[in-house]
Amino acid sequence: MDLGAVIGAGPETTRYVTSIIRVSLQVSMTAVAISTAMGIPLALVTAFRRFPGRRLLTTVITTGMGFPSVVVGLVVLLLLSASGPLGTLQLAFTPRAMIISQTILALPVITAVSLSAVQAVDQSVRDAAFAVGATRRDVAVRTIAEARFGIITAVLAGFGRAISEVGSILIVGGNIVFTDGTSYTRTLTTAITVEARQGRYETGLILGAILLAVVLVINAVGAWVSARGDR
Amino acid sequence: MRITVEDVRLTRGEATVLDGVDLTVEAGAVTAIVGPSGVGKTTLLRAIAGFAPPAAGAIRYDGADLWAVEERQRLQLRRTVAMVPQDRSLFNTTVARNVAYGLGVRGGPLERLRMAVGGVQATDALAQQVTDALALVQLAGMGGRAARTLSAGEAQRVAIARAIATDPAMLLMDEPTSNLDPQTTAVIEEAILAAVRRGMGVIIATHDIHQAGRIADRVAVMIGDTIIEEGSATTVLEDAASPAARRFLAGELPL
Amino acid sequence: MIGIAGCTTGDEGATAEPAQLTEAIGDGELILATTTSTYDTGLLDAVVPTFESAFGMTVKMLPQGTGAAIETARNGDADVLLVHARSREDAFMQAGYGVNRRDMMFNDFVVVGPAADPAGIAGGDSAAGAFDAIAAAEATFVSRGDNSGTHTKELVVWDRATSVPGGRWYQEIGKGMGDTLAQASQTGAYTISDRGTYLSMREEVDLEILVEGPLRGGPLVLKNPYGVMAVNPAVHAQVNYQAAMAFIGFCTAPDTQAAIDAYTANGSQLFFANAWAEPVDFAQYVPAGYSVDAAARLTAEDRQFLSWVDAKVPAGY
Fold it and tell me: CB of A59 within 8 Å of any CB in chain C?
């Protein structure tokens, strides 16, 4: 796709750029949604229940935050490849494979930051909820509400990790664009690698600016949600 | 309502905090549990409130052993009692939502949704209960304030209003006035007496003997790992039977 | 099977109207593993849509490094493979993963560098000699260093040269072709490039062709033939073999071969179609060195011994 030659030149470019933005957001937001649904309960359990291996689990979670995305991509591809153990699912080089690898990347971030946020909730606040007749589940919900600012930060951090990474989705997604210019597994970040490897740095920077704008909008939404919750 | 603590042993980790504790508390009166700081008053209150099963013995509400019944019934029993913890325990939201919390969790999913969306104005009944509870602690009109902007005294009163709003048969309070000024202490003590006039029982853990003297009908003295003396307030405070109790009440540190 | 009717004869430049298949082949998808340099020339974007509409297929093009593309095909994650690394294609077929190879097109490599040409290699007729001159002058040389087809070719040339690349002047950067040319341009360095990528980037880089490839009379070592082959369905039952064969047929069909010849970038032809040649090149279908007679004469034991030799004994023994 010779983006450099046609940039600013009409419907083909618009379709290409719109489709890669769409794929970026679909993949990263789905991954963050799944990671949040798994990470918050995990954070609550790790914070408030005693079980053997709890300290080890916390270490694994924080280590996972810094795990190289390209290694995650390789492992996921090996699993999902037609020659691999999960080959029958036919997920290699699909958006779902990208969602899987980004979930693996975002989960530790969201869990670790949420863990820190819920641990900061005073035990007497949790006790007070329990002691006016809340069930354990009510107390968990109240703890999340008390930790809401930290949790919003966690989700935004997870989103940041997902939307900006390129190593894993390049490998498991295959950077595929259909011949009509719509993206199948190409995102803003992997599109930038295409421009960069062809030496078209300016176009890469333009796509980078678009990516930055997307991230800014998401973070602004997050800040708005935060402010609304400040009641 | 009658709460009975029957030969209860309580541990925290490896250590035994309380052993062989017996206590009976009736509604409609104020029972003060006095003792030195750190002796285990909080642990006892938490046991009564149903946080965790005792290592030995039983906690009975009107004869029913709290930990011998099913989860569901234990929840219903727990909801006849409300506890106000010692430290700042308010939620980071408005005063009104704090006070309405106990009522909210008792509702079904539809009511919770209504309250989440509409706040305490969701139903007239809810709004009324919140107003009444705030009036009892002399904080009428403060419903819209953010809890984190309150002073220590105001916060403690809101916490009490939150417990009272659920109309419990028994109210448990852990050192409710220990760091507060005399005026706020007076307001809180007046609220306790008003609650008792409504028919509630109040168990108050305190190291302030004078407070016990002002408002308690019955007093239990906790020294070491058990209750060494229990009886009517006037008897215990003026003429305690056990020497250790007498020494504590006279202001000496226990051995 | 359907013939592509309506191929016009005598119309120059007019788009032929191929007949449309009403039923897709297999699941209607063809996964094509190819190299980033091939993909980046834009040739596939030009010819693949014709294939898609003629056969009612959707093509998913996977641009990867040469090694990764071959690995993807080996794993059965692609249906058809299009690369330009003959020795590795041979190994791929010998191992049983690829079948029905066809020559598709060719171009060549060129040695490029700054116009100032500090090592004085301009106009030379030996690639190895040029590399020796660069080494002697310790002029900066940028290598892709990524086992791509280009890098493989570069190592072949160093092999023939007397110098050994190393030291501060030889920089392995592990990047794609366009990126490598950009970096060479910025640092005033020499490098080796496929002609196609160089031509498509000519406007953006400050590099000249200093040693030509065989398309313009340069040394034969710089040849760059492309091959397309299907992934063996006997090894990976789930591949869309019929679609792969349709694609190979399409790539080697006269119309497409003409389109390949007609494809230009920055005004220059990038590829030369060679699916058809006179005399017919039978060697394109099988791994290099394969002999039917030899295979037929061998007993089972001898064949086994030879397969051990192939597997264990290194090439230079």
Answer: no
The answer as to whether C274 is a domain residue is: no
ipTM for this prediction: 0.90
| Residue A228 CB-density burial (10 A; 0-12 exposed, 13-18 middle, 19+ buried) | exposed
Structural domain contains residue A230: no
A21 located within any domain = yes
For residue C290, pLDDT over 90 is answered with: no
Tokens of C113: 């560098």
Distance from CA of A37 to the nearest CA of B (A): 20
Q: What is the pLDDT at residue B244?
A: 86
Task: Say if C and B touch: at least 3 Cβ pairs within 8 Å.
Answer: no
Find all residues with CB under 8 Å of C79, minimum gap 6, and list them: C30, C31, C32, C230, C231, C239, C240, C241, C243, C244, C247
d(CA B157, CA B140) in angstroms, rounded, equals 11
Q: Which of A12, A23, A93, A179 best tests the C interface by mutation, with the highest count of C CBs <10 A?
A: A179
Q: What is the pLDDT of residue C108?
A: 93
> Please, which chains are in contact with C (at least 3 CB pairs closer than 8 A)?
A
> Which class for B58: exposed (0-12), middle (13-18), buried (19 or more C-beta within 10 A)?
middle
Strand C98-113 to strand C272-273: parallel, antiparallel, or no bridges (unpaired)?
Answer: antiparallel
- Between the alpha carbon of residue B143 and those of residues B97, B130, B160, B161, the distances in Å are 8, 8, 14, 11
Residue type, B203: I
User: Residue C236 domain-assigned?
Assistant: no
Residue A179 within a domain: yes
Return the percentage of chain C with pLDDT > 70, whole number: 92
Question: Given this model, what pLDDT does residue C14 score?
Answer: 47
Nearest CA in chain A to C43: A1
Contact criterion met (CB below 8 Å) for B206 and B175:
yes
- Cβ separation of A81 and C77 shorter than 8 Å? yes
Higher-confidence residue of B12 and C47: namely C47
* Percent of chain B residues past pLDDT 70, beyond the cut: 98
Within a 10 A sphere around the Cβ of B208, how many other Cβ atoms? 16
**Tens digits of per-residue pLDDT, B30-75?**
999 998 888 889 999 999 999 999 999 999 999 999 999 999 999 9
CATH number at residue C205: 3.40.190.10
Closest-CA residue to B184 (of B203, B147, B159, B166): B159
CB–CB contact B162 A132 (8 Å) = yes
Instruction: Please give the structure tokens belonging to residue A230.
Output: 């400040």
Q: Which residues of chain B neighbour A132 with C-beta distances below 8 Å? A: 82-83, 101-102, 105, 162-163, 166
Q: pTM for this one? A: 0.81
Structurally, how many domains does chain C consist of?
A: 1
Full domain range(s) for residue C156 = 108-222
Q: Identify whether A231 is part of a domain.
A: no
Give a yes or no: residue C139 inside a domain: yes
Residue C132 within any structural domain of the chain: yes
Q: Domains in chain B, please, with CATH?
A: 24-52+67-80+171-255 (3.40.50.300), 89-167 (no CATH)
CATH number of the domain within which A27 lies:
1.10.3720.10
Chain B residues inside the 8 Å CB shell of A131: 49, 51, 82-85, 163, 172
Question: B88 to chain A, minimum CA–CA distance in Å?
Answer: 7
The model's pLDDT over A112-138, given as tens digits with 9 standing for 90+, comes to 999 999 999 999 999 999 999 999 999
Total structural domains within chain A: 1
State percent of chain A over pLDDT 70.
94
Q: Which domain holds residue A165?
A: 3-225
